[in-house]
Amino acid sequence: MPQAWRSLTKLAFAVFAFPFAALLSGCGLGDGDFACAFSPGAAPVLENLIVDFAPYDPTTGRAGAFIFDRQEDKVFLEFNAVVGGPTGPKTLPTFEYRVDPQANVYAPIDGTVVRFVYQPDTADYEIGFAQNGSACETVSIDHVKAPTVGQGDAVSAGKVVGRPGSWSANLGRVELMVTIGRVAYCPFSYFDPAKKSVYEQKIKQLMADWETFKGDPTIYDEAAMVLPGCLGLTGTP
Length: 237
What we know:
With 237 residues, the protein is α+β, with helices and mostly antiparallel strands. The chain is built from three helices and 15 strands.
């Protein structure tokens, strides 16, 4: 390509790209979002919900990985549930679980570890997975101890990637989040269609079992859920 054409091409890109980048920045979006807008990756396809589910067993006090403890308000916190935070109420962009601290935590997708961050305040890790290596579309697990993977590792859905972080003396905590750019999505929005109804039923069973255990059928507002466990389709990470 002649030098003059190369210069014109660069100028044309600058005329378009820089105002567009400024627009994104004005909307609260950064360089990473600009890159994601031009180079979107493959949307994730979840194969599981990162922990074991099962109907409640009164002889063990458990429902798969979940320990039913009457001191807890919930053992499953819904996507977009409002909870107390250190600076006031916040809306959860995740599925959050109260589980056996020795439970297995599983990779939710086939992909690569694109985020691996130690969190000193909770002494655990946040691990993000992507199916094409892009950090623009990630499925993250927050509060993981004893991780078995690291940055850049390839994983298969169902691989044990660690244990839950700490919540109380006898409970662990772990969270599942799906993000595309700067938007969080209900996990069922990106689920394997062949497995989606099975896992939706697992969430329904868990909520029903917990309400029966606590003797309160109003703990979960199923009528407000757009999908099982989801009080909305999108949220803010």
